[in-house]
Specification:
This protein is an alpha+beta fold. Helix content is about 45%, strand content about 20%.
Length: about 240
């Protein structure tokens, strides 16, 4: 193995360790080693580096590792870079209250669909898989389909190929209407309705969505939510900018 290949493999393992610790809410060195099929001495070395750089914290009395505050700093930087203005956050909060359901804004950032802001509450929480950050299955969500439908067909096909997803069918009606509805395809028991937010040139620059409980989402409820979304999108369009 070349030095460069070895460095890449080390980086891959370090990132995998962070994923394991995040997913499990903390883990011991042995648990990480077994889950990643990585030799225990190598696992220890990587854990020590990640702890030294504050990406992890070592809870010695519990013999386990948890996420460190450096990741929180990076998360704060990401929020700033995605840059949802306060007025847009306020509009999403009002949409959440009117719809009585979680509301979110998603953008295309580089080669990722990113949930840039979520408005919810204890009574109407947003499902965990739809929280802030890059989305791993945009083709299965209403907001992802709105953003995909706004692309050139060849661009959309390339995007899906790079994300390991099958070609998406039915994007033409979404492009024509600027809205999409997804019923339990991404997350069982939920129904999502989304519309596009357009800039002054008519280009879709982001998507707004509301996530409903499928048991309470009949056709009339979906139409009402779409109406609320379109009204909010018109307001958001005056303040929202393209992501950097």
């Amino acid at each position: 193995m070349t030095a460069a290949a070895g460095s890449v493999r080390t980086l891959d393992r370090a990132l995998a360790i962070l994923d394991v610790v995040a997913a499990r809410g903390g883990a011991s060195a042995r648990e990480v080693s077994e889950l990643l099929d990585c030799p225990l001495p190598t696992t220890y070395r990587l854990l020590q580096v990640l702890t030294r750089e504050r990406y992890l914290v070592h809870l010695r009395e519990q013999s386990r590792f948890e996420l460190g505050d450096e990741l929180g700093r990076l998360g704060s930087c990401l929020h700033r870079q995605v840059g949802v203005p306060a007025v847009v956050r306020g509009l999403l909060g009002a949409l959440h209250e009117r719809a009585g359901a979680p509301a979110l804004l998603a953008v295309l950032r580089g080669d990722d669909v990113v949930v840039a802001h979520v408005a919810d509450c204890a009574g109407h929480p947003c499902p965990a898989p739809v929280r802030f950050g890059s989305h791993r299955a945009p083709h299965a969500t209403a907001f992802g389909r709105v953003l995909l439908a706004a692309m050139d067909p060849a661009e959309a096909a390339g995007f899906l190929r790079r994300h390991g997803a099958a070609p998406a069918a039915g994007l033409a009606p979404v492009a024509a209407s600027g809205a999409a509805t997804e019923r339990g395809e991404f997350l069982a028991g939920t129904t999502s309705v989304a519309v596009g937010v357009r800039d002054g040139a008519g280009r879709v620059v982001s998507a707004l969505a509301v996530v409903l409980e499928s048991a309470r989402a009949d056709a009339a409820r979906e139409r009402e939510v779409e109406r609320l979304l379109r009204g909010c999108a018109a307001e958001v369009a005056r303040h929202h900018r393209r992501p950097r």
